[in-house]
Amino acid sequence: MRVLVTGGLGYIGSHTCVELARDGHRLLIIDNLGNAKPSVLERIRELAPGAAIEFVRADVRDAAALESAFAGAGIEAVMHFAGLKSVSESMANPALYRDNNLGGTAILLKAMARHGVERIVFSSSATVYGVPEQLPYTESHRLQPANPYGQSKLQVERLLAAQAALRAGFRYAALRYFNPIGAHPSGRMGEDPRGVPENLLPYLTQVALGRLPRLRIYGADYATPDGTGVRDYLHVMDLAAGHLAALAYLCDRDRSICANLGAGRGYSVLEVLGAFERATGRKLAYDIAPRRPGDIAAYHADASLAARELGWKARYGIEDMCRDAWRWQAQNPAGYPD
Ligand code: NAD
Ligand code: UFG
Question: What percent of the chain has pLDDT over 90?
Fold first, then answer.
C-alpha cells in the first residue's frame, strides 16, 4: 500500500518504516524534525534497500503542507506517530500537548477526509489507563490518565471514535503501547534522545558508555517484589510488527480496534538492570533515589486481545531488548550523525 507515516523519523516510526518498506509498502514520511535528525532517513533506506520512500519535512499542524503532501499522492492509509511524549514536559506545558497531539491529529483527519483516506493506525499509550484498578490492564479498564500527555492520547482516541461514528468507511487502530525499548538488531537504528534521557533504557546505555556516572533508581520502597517499579517492556521490533498486523486488520477485517501492545509481563528496574548486565557483560553502578513524582508502582498489559484479533504476540525477551539497545548505543555513541 501507499502509506503516509507521520513522525516516521522518530524512534518507533523509523523502526516501523523499515518493516513496512521491507514488506513492500511505499512510504511517504512526514516529520517536522522536532525530535529527529535527517540522517535517520538514510538509515531507513539502508535497511530497506530499493524501497520507495519519500520524505517531506512538515508539521502535521500545517494544513497547507498536509494538503500538498496528500494531493495526488494516492495515499491509502496513515500511520500516525507524530507527537510529543514527555510526561514531565506535558505537566509543565499542557497547552503544547493539547495543541500538538490533539490539534495535530484533528488537522490530519481533515486532510484524510478531503482525500478519501479511511485507514489510520495511531500511537496511543498505556498511560491512558492511569492508576490501576486491577492488573493486568485490559482494554476495558477505566480510562483516567494522570497527566496532560496521557489526556492528549485519550482525547485523540475519542476523536478517532467520533470520526468513525461520523464517516461510514473510516477505520482506526489505536495501539496502546506499554514500554518500547531495544533497537534494530543491525545496530544501525535505535533510540536517540536529546540531552539526559528520561527513560530507563537510554539512561542505562549511557551509563554503560561512561557518559553518565550511575543509574538512579527512582524508589526502592514500592509494594513490588524487590521494591522497584515494574513495567511491561517490549522490543521496538515487536512493536513495529504490531503496526503491520494492525494495518492488515483494518484492511481485511474492516473494523476499528483499540488494543494493548505489551509483552504481557512486568520486570522491575532491578530485573532490567540484571538483564542488561547479563546481555552486555558489564556491571553498572547505581543509587537508590527518591520516587519520581507521578510514577505508578507497577503495571503490565493483558495482551490477549492483540493476540486474538491481530494475531500479534511479542517475541523478543528482555535480554534481547537490552542487547540490541546496547549494540546500537555502542556502535553509535553520539546517536545519529548531525
Ligand atoms: P519520537 O519523539 O522519537 O518520535 C516522534 C516523531 O514525531 C519525531 O520524529 C518528531 O520529530 C515528530 N513530530 C512530533 N510532533 C510533530 C508534528 N507536529 N509534526 C510532524 N512531526 C512531529 O517518539 P517515539 O518514541 O517514536 O513515539 C512515537 C509515538 O508513540 C508518539 O506519538 C508517542 O507519544 C507514542 N508513544 C511512545 C511511547 C514510548 O515510550 N516511546 C509510549 C507510548 C506511546
Ligand atoms: N526509572 C529509573 N531511573 C531512570 C529512569 C526510569 O529508576 O533513570 C524507572 C521508573 O521509575 C519506572 C521505570 O524505570 O519505574 C520505567 O521508567 P521509564 O521512564 O522508562 O518509563 P515510564 O513507564 O515512566 O513511561 C514510559 C514512557 C511514557 C509512556 C509509558 C507507557 O516514557 O511516555 O511508558 O507505559 F506513556
Answer: 99
Task: Note if 149 is an active site residue.
Answer: yes
Q: Is the pLDDT of residue 254 over 90?
A: no
Ligand 2: which of 221, 231, 234, 267 to mutate, judged by most atoms within 8 Å of the beta carbon?
231
C-beta of 11 in contact with ligand 1 (< 6 A) = yes
In the structure, what pLDDT confidence band is assigned to residue 220 with cuts at 50, 70 and 90?
A: very high
**Ligand 1 atom nearest to 104, measured from its CA:** 18
Tell whether 219 is covered by a domain. Answer: no
Domain count, the chain: 1
- How far away, in angstroms, is 97 Cα from ligand 1 center? 12
- Does the global pTM surpass 0.90? yes
Catalytic residue among 149, 233, 299, 336: 149
Ligand 1 pocket, 174 CB below 6 A? Answer: no
Q: Does 33 fall in a domain?
A: yes
Question: Which stretches within 253-317 are classed as H helix?
Answer: 269-280, 304-305
pLDDT, one tens digit per residue, over 49-105 is: 999 999 999 999 999 999 999 999 999 999 999 999 999 999 999 999 999 999 999
Q: Is the CB of 22 under 6 A from ligand 2?
A: no
- What CA dihedral angle connects 41, 44, 49 and 54, to 10 degrees? -50
Q: Is residue 32 part of a domain?
A: yes
CB contact set of 335 (below 8 Å; sequence gap of 6+): 37, 192
Which three cell numbers, joined as nine digits, stand for 210? 561512561
In whole angstroms, how far apart are CA 302 and each of 134, 138, 140? 11, 5, 11
Question: What is the domain extent for residue 127?
Answer: 2-183+232-263+303-314
By alpha-carbon position, which residue is closest to atom 3 of ligand 2?
217
CATH of the domain at 309: 3.40.50.720
Residue 196 belongs to some domain of the structure: no
